[in-house]
Amino acid sequence: MLDDNKISIDLHGMRADEAKIAIEQHLINCLNNNFSQIRIVHGHGEGVLKKITQETLDKSEFVKRYYFDHNYSATIGELKY
After folding, report:
1. Domain containing 58 — which CATH number?
2. Percentage with pLDDT > 70 across the chain
3. Averaged over 68-78, what is the pLDDT?
């Protein structure tokens, strides 16, 4: 089991442009640490951060697939190398 503190990033309080950059940087960090997953906490809200998360993961060549956690407040991505 992976340490959630290392694979997770929390986007609460970020604007859309900040969140996109944070996700991209966190993805690179997880790849550099050879993690198999990335977890992005975006919350429920109006869905802006969730949409940015999905768009960013869709565009990444290093994300095999992604899915929502059990309460839909975070997205889990499986990484590929």
Report:
1. 3.30.1370.110
2. 94
3. 93
pTM, entire model: 0.90
Q: What is the dihedral of CA 4, 63, 27, 70, to 10 degrees?
A: -30
42-50's contacts with Cβ under 8 Å and 24+ in sequence apart are: 42/11, 42/12, 42/73, 42/74, 42/75, 43/11, 43/12, 43/73, 44/72, 44/73, 48/16, 49/11, 49/12, 49/14, 49/16, 49/19, 50/75
Quote the number of domains for the chain: 1
Range(s) of the domain holding residue 43: 4-79
- Cα–Cα distance for residue pair 15/22, rounded to 1 Å: 10
